[in-house]
Specification:
InterPro entries: Cytok_DH_C_sf, Cytokinin_DH_FAD/cytokin-bd, FAD-bd_PCMH, FAD-bd_PCMH-like_sf, FAD-bd_PCMH_sub1, FAD-bd_PCMH_sub2, FAD-linked_Oxase-like_C, FAD-linked_Oxidoreductases_BP. It comes from Trapa natans (Water chestnut). Belongs to the oxygen-dependent FAD-linked oxidoreductase family. One of its GO terms (molecular function) is cytokinin dehydrogenase activity. The chain contains 16 helices and 18 strands. With 544 residues, the protein is α+β, with helices and mostly antiparallel strands. The protein has 3 domains: 118 residues, Uridine Diphospho-n-acetylenolpyruvylglucosamine Reductase, domain 2, CATH 3.30.43.10; 116 residues, Uridine Diphospho-n-acetylenolpyruvylglucosamine Reductase, domain 3 (2-Layer Sandwich); 239 residues, Vanillyl-alcohol Oxidase, Chain A, domain 3, CATH 3.40.462.10. Strands 14-11-13-12-16-17-15-18 form an 8-stranded antiparallel sheet. Strands 5, 6, 7, 8, 9 and 10 form a 6-stranded antiparallel sheet that branches. Strands 1-2-4-3 form a 4-stranded mixed sheet, with helices on both faces. It starts with a helix and ends in a 34-residue tail after the last helix. The protein binds flavin-adenine dinucleotide. The site of flavin-adenine dinucleotide (FAD) has 36 residues, from strand 3, helix 6 and strand 10.
Amino acid sequence: MIAYLERFVPDNDTDPIPQEDGGDRRHDSHSPVLPDSLGLHGSSVDSGKAAAVFASRDFGGMASVQPLALICPTGPEDIARTVRAASASTHLTVAARGNGHSINGQAMAHMGLVIDMRCLDPDLFELAPGGPHGPPSVVVSGGALWEDVLTRCLEHGLSPRSFTDYLGLTVGGTLSNAGVSGQAFRYGPQTSNVTELEVITGKGTVSLCSEDENSDLFFGALGGLGQFGIITKARILLQPAPDMVRWIRLVYTDFSEFTRDAEWLITRPDGNSFSYVEGFVFVNSDDPANGWPTVPLRPDHPFEQERLPPTAGSVLYCLELALNYRRHDLPSAVNSVVEGLTGGLRFVEGLEFHANVDYSEFLLRVKRVEQHAKATGIWEAPHPWLNLFVSKSSIADFDRTVFKGILREGIGGPMLVYPMLRNRWDSRTSVVLPDSGEIFYIVALLRFSQPYPDGPPAEMQVAQNREIVHACNKKGFDYKLYLPHYKCQEDWKRHFGDKWAKFVDRKNRFDPMAVLAPGHKIFSRSLGLGSKIIAVEEDQCGLL
Ligand SMILES: Cc1cc2nc3c(=O)[nH]c(=O)nc-3n(C[C@H](O)[C@H](O)[C@H](O)COP(=O)(O)OP(=O)(O)OC[C@H]3O[C@@H](n4cnc5c(N)ncnc54)[C@H](O)[C@@H]3O)c2cc1C
């Protein structure tokens, strides 16, 4: 069996990548031999060209490696069989692919087996009502999309507590990173809102884990970049769903006032603040992709730039807030809470935007962006995104160096910046945060340009990302990459800092042959039992 599989696997990484247009998920060539070789029970295995194209692409659109096959699993056992077969070989790797929204090939496997997690248990939805011992929760598949989880929860008047801005991402994909949005200041990231996982380790063992059972696997898998196991099920904490959201944007000219107000809001006691706090930077111009037009919430709500003081600089800031409420709440009561919270804030008078929207419309707001971007070809263009966590101690310098300096003309898409609280993150997970302070900021540079030549070349945008990271290092900013992507051991070690030894130890215990998640290029596939895990060495370190 293994000999059969290994016939396909080259000794080096230089095989050509199939060049083909499209990328639709069409499993067009089912190998009758490969499923038998893997011993799968009903899962489909596709080693055709369309599958190769599908699995060799991601949202970033910059990395591409050819897999051996794409597997559509019918159940966790078939994933376990696949992992066991791979680990018994000398070369094969396995990548769980969620919805492929990575930027740098993290869900790919060169001549390895890619598991399409979207196939797994799409109907799994085991609701547990809340009670005196805790809030309600639901068990869903690791391959479920958050938007589907939300829709099904809303049918029961419930909702997850912590989200990402965009919900076309899988549960396993975001839990392997962190999963953050404007609710994280209160509930923490999505990794803080899950109490139990089913994980298939790199040895092919199916394990249930939680804070009390197999806790090292549980905390390792959360934020673990898929290095220790494939998340097949997750129990997610829920809360009663509100009906409506008051959605608000407030414009600032001064970064220190923007951060002071944002920090004041996130440190208010629970129940006495907004439900969601985010923010973004925009350019002080009429540029439709980077400037004033990106701020209003409705087309009939113009941005009156004459309200800006003459002292306003080349970039401006916008606090984005949301207050959840029930349909039967009196508008005057909602207004009074909003006024109570915003009354003392220092935004530019008159540059405030309000809208009342359905809760689900608010949570699915980026879907509209997706539809528009798909219609204009921007969704399929390369997306050289960069995400960082920057400590409060470095954020003012970061603003001067990056927002007002390197990015003063914008990036052709949102530049998010908003604060979060360390105490809402569990330090036992694999996620790494900046070294110091209770408050840190997420900075998300979400480039959404037309493909070259209508937009800038992706290489230029990647070079700008490198310049930003270089500046952070040179100036000694306290920061970490979020959704990290490095290519050599020294950078990964620096990234994990004092968590590196634990990370390597967990790898040795849960995936000793380094079969899983090869796309991160942290560990290279071990060649035989007992051989040492070796991190990938490259001549040049830095971002992928
Ligand atoms: C439009 C867009 C908006 C985004 N918005 C946000 C946001 O608001 N907040 C935020 O935090 N992030 C955001 N992200 C980033 C996103 O959370 C990550 O890219 C996430 O990994 C994507 O999930 P996915 O299901 O597409 O995973 P994939 O890209 O398919 O996989 C990501 C990594 O996780 C591993 N993996 C996937 N599934 C599993 C599993 N079941 N078990 C173990 N490992 C697994 C993969 O092997 C890979 O290493 C956004 C990305 C995009 C493209």
